[in-house]
Specification:
Helices cover 33% and strands 21% of the residues. By secondary structure, it is α+β, with helices and mostly antiparallel strands. The strands form 7 sheets. It has a 5-stranded antiparallel β-sheet. A 3-stranded antiparallel β-sheet has the order 1-9-10, with no helix packed on it.
């Protein structure tokens, strides 16, 4: 996540979802910038209002994953600080974090292998396919794709869906061969000096939180034609990037953004929302469309930056609900059980503080209290009753049993059991029995494994497509590949290899541990 913040624009938890009235984008295509900006701002604001309650729910999922419950925890001070010893704070036994991380670990242990296959049997095309396969491996290694893929799975389990952007970054890659040299501008005839820090650029991957991505409201994702991405940037950075638009780039006194550290909205001075709109290539919008804008001005717009004609991101979902556009999180189904588990844990703790300490029951004046020399509670009364020390069990066995039952139900719904953590069921020691339990667990995860393999395949396909759009023959690119005896080698890459048609598949391997 870049910056760790997100503007909660027009955020009001009490605001109900409003009906949408957004015309198709092709109705303003070809008109002047003023009409296009009006459509862009109206569509983005309408989608944000419509998804407001859903975004609030996603942020509650994030709080539950972290073990934080609003109303019980003040993040400005550590837990239990300045609390009297006789008081009990809200007790959270966070099983959600453990279950999410267990599922992420289960999915991450399966490493799909990318296969790039040529469309024909020609020798040159076979070699080009091998080189393209090496390029994908190089970019995945360069961007630490294994860690990134784990983060994708974590987002999916917490929020119900995850968005990974595959885009071109001019500031990445090796130093350009022409950096620091002088070149002739063919249009003006002037001799220009190429900057010393000029890079060749490269493909980059960026994970985005779901509330920064707004989709056109359709019945399913395949029918979505356009999407918005929201960023928060400092006004000076935007003016530096677009100097010809700096007079039109404005910001208010402050911008409300969502801070991940406190899970609250905070004011960011001199910051503004920057929107990016992506439209797929369709019959009405041929070649796709891209626009970058603020509420006051269009910074840039035109045809899509990429030839694949699709969105510059790939999406993976946790649970797919019929006729539901957005993915649902399995975490939603166990979050209320976790709250009840916390309620019981707090009650048990309070009862222990109240009743577990021994108590002296004695008539008033029967002894000198200071001489007892212990921390037991003293209860004084009137009447000729002999002093005695009393201690009771603060909680019954049924309370602990119900609490354990809640945990078992969470594990059953979330498909996380003792075998997942290396704890076999009581009495099961045979290797065959343990293997059977492991196979059953892997079989239940087969749908998620299929989703993961399809996701990785699509990311690899878009990686090659973006590289093919921007790699140049004279870039002098090299690839870092793994050679013999686990030694890395540098190999030059010919950008012409990317212009050939390929089939990209995933070697599924074995889903059983």
């Amino acid at each position: 996540m870049s910056g760790g913040i997100f503007d909660n624009y027009l955020h009001d938890h009490k605001m109900r979802n409003e009906p949408l009235d957004i015309k198709p984008f092709h109705t303003v295509l070809g008109k002047d910038d003023k009409d296009i900006l009006k459509w862009l701002t109206s569509a983005s604001e309408s989608l944000m209002k419509h998804q407001n309650s859903r975004h609030h729910w996603l942020k509650q999922n994030l709080a539950a994953y972290r073990g934080l419950q609003r109303g019980y925890l003040n993040r400005s001070t550590p837990r239990r600080e300045h609390l009297p010893m006789t008081k009990v704070d809200r007790l959270v036994v966070n099983h959600l974090y453990d279950m999410v991380e267990t599922r992420v670990a289960q999915l991450s242990r399966l490493k799909p292998s990318i296969l790039v296959l040529p469309k024909n049997d020609e020798f040159q095309d076979k070699n080009a396919a091998r080189a393209s396969k090496l390029l994908i491996d190089h970019l995945f290694e360069l961007n630490n794709f294994d860690d990134l893929e784990r983060a994708v799975q974590r987002h999916k389990k917490i929020f119900g869906e995850s968005y990974l952007f595959i885009e071109w970054d001019d500031k990445k890659g090796e130093k350009h061969p022409d950096a620091g040299t002088e070149v002739l501008d063919e249009e003006s005839g002037e001799v220009l000096k190429v900057p010393e820090n000029l890079k060749v650029g490269d493909v980059c991957y960026e994970l985005e939180v779901p509330w920064r991505v707004l989709l056109e409201q359709k019945e399913c994702f395949d029918r979505v034609n356009y999407a918005f991405r929201i960023k928060v940037e400092h006004v000076d950075d935007v003016k530096r990037e677009y100097p010809d638009k700096k007079e039109s780039i404005k910001t208010g006194d402050s911008t409300m953004i969502f801070d991940y550290s406190t899970l609250e909205n905070i004011n960011m001075k001199d910051s503004l929302l920057v929107f990016e709109m992506y439209h797929k290539s369709t019959d009405s919008v041929e070649g796709g469309y891209y626009a970058k804008f603020t509420k006051d001005v269009i910074l840039e717009h035109g045809k899509s930056k990429y030839s694949h004609g699709c969105f510059p991101f790939e999406r993976i979902t946790d649970l797919d609900i019929p006729h539901e556009l957005y993915g649902a999180a399995q975490l939603d189904q166990v979050r209320e059980i976790q709250k009840e588990h916390n309620n019981l844990s707090t009650l048990i703790s309070k009862n222990i503080w109240l009743a577990a300490h021994p108590k002296w029951l004695l008539p008033k004046g029967a002894c000198k209290i200071e001489a007892l020399g212990n921390d037991a509670t003293i209860v004084q009364y009137q009447g000729p009753v002999a002093p005695q020390m009393a201690q009771v069990a603060p909680n019954s066995a049924e309370v602990y049993g119900f609490r354990d039952k809640l945990k078992e139900e969470m594990e059953q719904i979330y498909a996380v059991h003792g075998v997942s953590r290396g704890q076999p069921p009581s009495g099961v020691t045979a290797a065959v029995a343990l293997q059977f339990l492991n196979e059953q667990e892997a079989e239940r995860a087969s749908d998620e494994i299929a989703k993961k393999n399809d996701f990785v395949k699509k990311v690899a396909r878009k990686t090659l497509s973006v590289a093919g759009d921007y790699y140049e023959m004279d870039d002098g690119r090299t690839m870092r590949i793994l050679g013999k005896e686990n030694k890395y080698l540098l190999r030059h890459f010919d950008a012409a290899n990317l212009s050939k048609p390929y089939d990209i598949k995933v070697d599924l391997g074995n889903a059983i541990a």
